[in-house]
Amino acid sequence: MSKRKMNLTTKEYMKVLKFINLIGILILFFTQCNEKAQDKHHQLINKEVNELFQVNLSDDTPKKLIFINDNGCPNCIISFSGYVLNHIDRFKDNSLILINSKGINVDIDKFLDLNAKNIFVSRNIRKQSKILPDLGIIYLKENSNEVDTIISINASTIREQLNYIENKP
């Protein structure tokens, strides 16, 4: 194999440096925009959770926010709240369980009887949220409060969603 020597003129060298700088600037720009969007999602979630449950999300907040609400499909509400109760040992210490119900489809007393510090109940039915699921989980990224995944439980895919939740650490 022959080795070719690459000789760049000063003008060509400057073009390469400008191109590399442009790539670096674009990477920084998009990284910062993504962080701002993540920050905005977290701020919206924190604001709504605080208004409903008087809970502030902080760095030591559990990384799973479980939402159970009377709004939506009654069978889904019963199934999901039952699922959470049946797996409460998995959720009660590493999750915030946020229940917004008058007790119609959710057995609030079973949750309250657990006397867990991470279970919060509001009997004021909230309006539809743009970011909080009526029924579902918000996973926050480890070592930050950035949103990782939002799962909104619905009738057509509830089995797949519960399987995902079951297998997610």
Work out the helix count: 5
What gap, in angstroms, lies between the N and C termini?
A: 52 Å
Rg is 23 Å
* Unreliable spans: 31-38
Structural classification: alpha/beta
Describe the strand arrangement of the main beta sheet, using strand numbers.
Answer: 3-2-1-4-5
Mean pLDDT metric? 81
Q: Could you give a short account of the major beta sheet?
A: 5 strands, mixed
- Binned, the helix content reads 40-55%
What would your notes on this structure say?
- This protein is an alpha/beta fold.
- The chain is built from five helices and five strands; from the N terminus they run H-E-H-H-E-H-E-E-E-H.
- The protein has helices at residues 10-53, 74-86, 88-91, 108-112, 158-167, and strands at residues 64-69, 95-100, 119-122, 136-140, 147-152.
- Strands 3-2-1-4-5 form a five-stranded mixed sheet, sandwiched between helices.
- The N and C termini lie far apart (52 Å).
Throw out a few tags for this protein.
single chain; 5 strands; 169 residues; alpha/beta
Task: Please describe the topology of this protein.
Elements (H helix, E strand, L loop, with lengths): L9 H44 L10 E6 L4 H13 L1 H4 L3 E6 L7 H5 L6 E4 L13 E5 L6 E6 L5 H10 L2
